[in-house]
Specification:
Elements (H helix, E strand, L loop, with lengths): L3 E2 L2 H11 L4 E2 L12 E7 L8 H11 E12 L7 H6 L7 H13 L3 E9 L4 H13 L13 H15 L11 E8 L2
Parallel strand pairs: 1-2, 3-4
Antiparallel strand pairs: 4-6, 5-6
Amino acid sequence: MIGIEYSTEARAYAHEANGLELTPGSILELPLADNAVLVACALDVLEHVEDDARGLSELVRVTKPGGIIIINVPAFKLLWSDWDVSLGHYRRYTLGMMRELLQPHLAQHSIEIVELKYINSVAFPLILAYRMFRKVVPSKSRAEDKVPSPAINSALYNLLVAPAKWRWFKAPFGVSVFAVLRKRV
């Protein structure tokens, strides 16, 4: 497994906290050969770069024919908040925006969509209400900056992760857009 991280600080933290050695690099110019990996993941990465099309092209380039590309990005501009700003996001996506981003590769028949859907749908109304409340009643403290207790983490897992595994569940909204793509042989 190869982990690539742009941030020097994040690479140092990964090493100190978990003993992980991450390769310096950017999604815009992955330090890998063409067709080098069987699975490429960009989990909450594309929203951090202005040229997300180039980032996607890099994922396609480094993935072997028949390989899988997994992408997760935040959804809906309606949920935009100071949290997005502090994280350096350029955008939040809709399914339509993701299809538009994928379109050149679909048209060239270099990839196919295995799965494309909204996830974290159960949490959407709660997060929307919280973000709207924060716009009306600003605070220097953010819930996003705190690590939840094990009990709350377990509840969040059941609310967020478990429904995302349901292949049959296609919600019309969610906090994230999730895509599984296959590079054509």
